[in-house]
Amino acid sequence: MVLTPPWGALALALVASRAAAQEQPAAALMAGAGSIRGRVEVRRTPHAEPARPQVAELGMPAAREAVDRRRSVVYLETVPQSAFEAPSPLRAVLDQRNETFVPPVVAITVGSSVDFPNSDKVYHNVFSLSKTRRFDLGRYPRGQSRSVVFDRTGVVRVFCEIHSHMSAYILVFAHRFFAVTDVDGRYRIDGILPGSYTLALWNEGNVRLRREVRVEAGQVLEQDLAVE
Amino acid sequence: MSFSTARTAALLFAVSGLAAADAPGGDRTTFFGGRLRLGGEVSGSIAPEDKGFFNYTDYETNTLRLFRIDVLAEAQLHSKAALLFDARMDNLQSPRVYALYLRLRPWSSRDFDLQLGLVPTVFGSFPRRRYAFDNPLPSLPLVYQYLTTIREDALPRNAEEVVAQRGRGWLVRYPIGDPSFGPGRPLVNAERWDAGIQARIGVHPVSLSLAVTQGTLSHPTVEDDNGGKQISGRLAWMPGPSFTAGLSASSGDFVADEARDELPGGGPGRYRQQALGVDLEWARGHLILRGEAVFSSWHLPAVDATRIEEPLDALGAFVEARYKLRPGLYVASRVDRLAMAEIGSNLGYLSWDADVTRFELGIGYSPLRHVLLKTAWQHNRRDGGRVRQSDLFAVQVLLWY
Q1: Residue A68's pLDDT is what?
Q2: Is residue A40 part of a domain?
Q3: How many Å apart are CA B302 and CA B308, to the nearest integer?
Q4: Which of A96, B53, B70, B100 could bond to B41 as cystine, CB 3.0-4.6 Å?
């Protein structure tokens, strides 16, 4: 079930979290902090980005690996103010392999960079026209990489100009309280100060679930989530 | 289904497809578990009236004043078989089938494919990036669009009748065969595909495609009009991702029975179109360079003096560049030349059709992934005909899904 319009709600959550957060000292973040972990079950059949019909080709396109569209991002919509005081930029990798982006979903903190290596024999042309970050990396051969720094929060949808079926998401958060689910749908968010939060689940462009949770000191809160 | 119903259906499909195109997380263009995939384009081009008919096709439409709905479908029948379909509707006229063929990959472990039906031409490179999405400018290269004064269904009696038509390929008439006015044919027709069978085999870094089809490069057709076949092929060499070179050739019976039957003695000769082509592409970073050259030769019957003793030869070539300035924004340019060989007549030696030169400079902008706006200035110059040159400013809006 989709709870809110897809882009605006997430972007709002990412940006508004600072204003809504409580003032907390940074050192207190880890002391007595709790965690949330669980498993996300995506019950609907995930759609792969379809390739356009290859009517003008002279043969069958190469077989591609199925993209795991069940990958989700679980995050806290509001976090303590102190979470913003020690920004920790990440360095993520979004590989271009067998005409797919691997992984299909990347989550980073604002100021982080993402490397886009080309692992295919053919060219790709990675680009995004998202308002959060517009970029176009051009064409470069196998073994080379380009990097993009993401300095605004929001959702960035990434495509390949040459292969219309290639797409990926980059979610840029203002804080570090998020996790991308693994192949089994498991996630874990650590270092959460005791308090009440809204836990949100994002999948395939939409915030699909929100749940109010309370984390106690030292607690590992189990939260299994499911979307239809 | 009536034509009006078909038009409405195509319009509805196009609109619904476009609405689905940017929907995150949704996929409303695949059905039956991905076995049926749909795609398409809707494009509209606006330009001043082309009084020199430089941009007309043999469908008698101006490529710079065109509203086109293009619907694509690919049905995966089996892991080794797919059915492909492309229908187009120009200026809300009756839809026409552009492609309809079966694609087979008999051995999944080998890079070998067969295609049967109304298939894409193997010749050259541009026809297979024909869709407006792949074309950085609103127009088509002269080689693939410009109407020469050659017709397969109407023939001149002598060289004087040929040179009298110089520069009038959009509406030409000859006495043998169909006596009515009609459009001539381009060197290679990118607006129609041919019916037949083709095979492609790839052994890296080389790929060879061969086809046997009903029509010719100038006049692809579904129904055989002369009992002859065309053999065409392309050898492509791709040593790396940045560079592709292709060498193409074709030979096919060109003159239709309708005209040949009126020739003295029933036209016993074989009147062929033969062509050779070279295509090159190089890309790196934000730059793409492409170039093609096509030499075409039409063998026409010699009937009366001054007899057309030699084949009518034409050489067309273009070079095209596209450079991205920033995300979603590019500049593009194409330099295009079409030159015809001279033939002797009682008017002296003249090229059998007027030579044409075209220069284009354009900008493309994508505000959204599925939207492309193109604008271009086009200068045409022709060494004959009523209108010798024209400057046109064109705008094209393209939505694809």
Answers
A1: 75
A2: yes
A3: 5
A4: B70
